[in-house]
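Thread: quick sanity check before group meeting

JM: Hey all, I'm pulling together slides for Thursday and realized we never actually wrote out the predicted structure for the chain we discussed last week. Dropping the sequence here so it's in one place. If anyone has concerns about the input, flag it before I start.
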Amino acid sequence: MENKLVLFVTLVLVAVALYFVATAPEPETEEIKEVDIQEAKDLLMRGLDFGRGTTEYDYYYTEISNGYPLEYRITEKGNISRVEVVNPLSAKQLYFLENDTILCVDYENRAVCSSVKNQAELNNYVESLKVKLLNDELINRNKASMQYLLAHGLAQLDPELTERPGCKEISYLLNFTNITLSEAATFGISSNSPKVFHWTMCIDYKTVKQKSFWYIHEQMNNTYEYRFVSFNEHPADIEVPENISTGAMVQLEKEREQSIKLSKCYTEKEGQEKEKCISDRALILSLPALCDLAGERRDRCLVSLIPKTNNETICTTIINQSYKDDCYIELAGKNKNQSYCSNVIDGEKIDFCNEVATRNETKVGSGIDINELFSQIESYEGMD
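JM (edit): ok, ran it. Output follows.
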């Protein structure tokens, strides 16, 4: 009897439960809306169209890679094209003529121009600059690549546009983490390459005013910035150098060697270590312009150049008054000339300035022996 009663109660409970399930209102589901990225996509594609159909122009822009500055000026007029590249160490120009290619290198205050047509060892370098020239084929390839990336989810475009002075900014993410082998080959992504890039691009109709990206590689944060400077569709005639010799390749190799060493300051160092690395390169190369890239060590870097350069104009560019005083003390000691001490402001340093102007060794006011420091840096350099 008990078994029958239990069975009856169970059946009743099941029936009640089924009733409430059947009559309960369906749960509300959140409506999933497809994000509209069309406006951002249209703006991106217009930006990638920059330069289409242009045959004559003068295009000037700057790049900063991990803090390392570059300037580019690209000019096409008639049958002549010129690509100019300026970095903290040198200025280079590559002229593409109908029957020749001329390379000019201005390094260590010496400018040399040479014909480099059919110079196999320079093919990669020449091609790396030639692709800077605007051409519709390259524009089409870049647009097709971006369309593929968007269609396959490798590029994720933020639908929100940000108004900036003179342009609208878009943001997108390039994520190559799960690409196929064929995609990796197409986009040049190796197993050791960074896979995630965070991009922004600010566009005024078809002109890219600014663009930047950052990524992390080997636990280091890497940044790139582009800034549009000017674009003129009616350039002046390009003056081709006439004084052609055979020294440009030698100059280029010397410049490349130092550029590689300087680039390591940016790719292998961070913070104060990077600033010191740049300052050391400035001292070795006697280049005040490099001190401007040394951050908080800038003024100290400039003072360290005086014993090597004896360039008194350096002192006028120093901002920190204490280091400015040290700069004139260095000049006084270097030239054994007390007149430089009249520029020293700190009363406690004036007597020291007069002292070093009348003795043999030269030390900055902070007590750093510059000649000894330079010897140490040169010794370290020989270990590379």
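AS: nice. The CA atoms of residues 148 and 285 lie 46 Å apart. The longest helix spans residues 2-23.
JM: adding both to the slides.
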